Amino acid sequence: MVVPFDHGARRDGAQTLGRGLRIASLIMQAGQGGLGLSDVVEATGLNKSTTHRLLLELVGAGLLSRDEQRRYRLGPLAYEMGLVSSYRYDVRPLCETSLDRIACSTGDTVFLGKRCGASSVCIDHRIGAEVRPPIVPPKGRVHPLGVGSMGMAVLSQLSDEQVTVINAANRKRLEAFAGVSSAYVQEMVERTRALGFARMANHVAHGVVSLGVSINDGSGRPLLAISVATTLGRMSRSHEQSVLDALYAEALVLQESLLQRSRFPADAFAVPVTP
């Protein structure tokens, strides 16, 4: 017997898939801490039973995992998918020399980051020789956009409408950082636009200051960001200028290289419409 094609079922299936992918994206942006069921319910607006069912489906597929505290994180399938797709999307080899040069010339820790929805994720770093103890980021560090100079450099390049949407999406996440609120992030966006670079201190780590600049495409869309972090005591006015000179020089090198990125697919730097 031939079963007629059910357009309603197709819409329902697409909706379920979309919701599941949205949940997976939220958990990815939460980083190593993951999210609990109530966090996902609040972020998505879905009811508890629907959210729980979708989470269990994603865990069963291996896209998510659940620990003893019932917190959800990316699972083994997400890791395997990342490994297989990395040859098409991994920009780190292109940036290695620039990161090395900045770390060598400044003596400070250098970060390379990429926007991920309403977050920034650290994808590579170099540890400078002059800062003791060294500033070492955890691998895959994820922060709300606007926390840290790397994320602020990216956020400041977006439109006012995008900044408003991202700020609203990150409202609760910002509470984890002392002195950071949506109003403060908005204020820092304006300051960063006026300066031409991001300068943040004491939010991610006490006693640490960082400077960051974005790496844009030909239309001004931020693709990546690089930042330098050091102790407040080292960041004199002259050292700050030296750091900025190094950041601007390498950002230009990387921007020109990325504009000729024939090895990257067209969607390598695509960002979903929803944060």
Give a written overview of the molecule.
Keywords: DNA-binding, Transcription, Transcription regulation. Residues 14-76 form the HTH iclR-type domain. The protein is α+β, with helices and mostly antiparallel strands and 275 residues long. It folds into 2 domains: 14-78, Winged helix-like DNA-binding domain superfamily/Winged helix DNA-binding domain (Arc Repressor Mutant, subunit A); 90-260, Beta-Lactamase. Helices cover 48% and strands 19% of the residues. The chain is built from 10 helices and 9 strands. The strands form 2 sheets. The protein has a 6-stranded antiparallel beta sheet, with helices on both faces. Helix 1 packs across helix 3, helix 2 crosses helix 3 (48-61) and helix 5 (92-106) runs antiparallel to helix 10.
Query: What's the main sheet like?
Result: 6 strands, antiparallel
Question: Biggest sheet, strands in spatial order?
Answer: 6-5-4-9-8-7
Secondary structure tally, helices: 10
Rg value? 20 Å
Spans of at least 5 consecutive residues whose pLDDT stays below 50 are 1-10
The CATH level-2 architecture of the largest domain is identified as: 2-Layer Sandwich
Q: Specify the CATH class of the largest domain.
A: Alpha Beta
**Element-by-element helix/strand order:** HEHHEEHHEEEHHHHEEEH
CATH fold name of the largest domain: Beta-Lactamase
Strand content range: 15-25%
How helix-rich are the residues, as a percent range?
40-55%
Number of domains: 2
What is the fourth-level CATH superfamily of the largest domain? GAF domain
Our measurement of the CA-to-CA distance between the termini, rounded to an integer number of angstroms, reads 44 Å
Report the structural category: alpha+beta
Number of strands: 9
Rough outline: globular
What would the average pLDDT be, to the nearest integer? 86
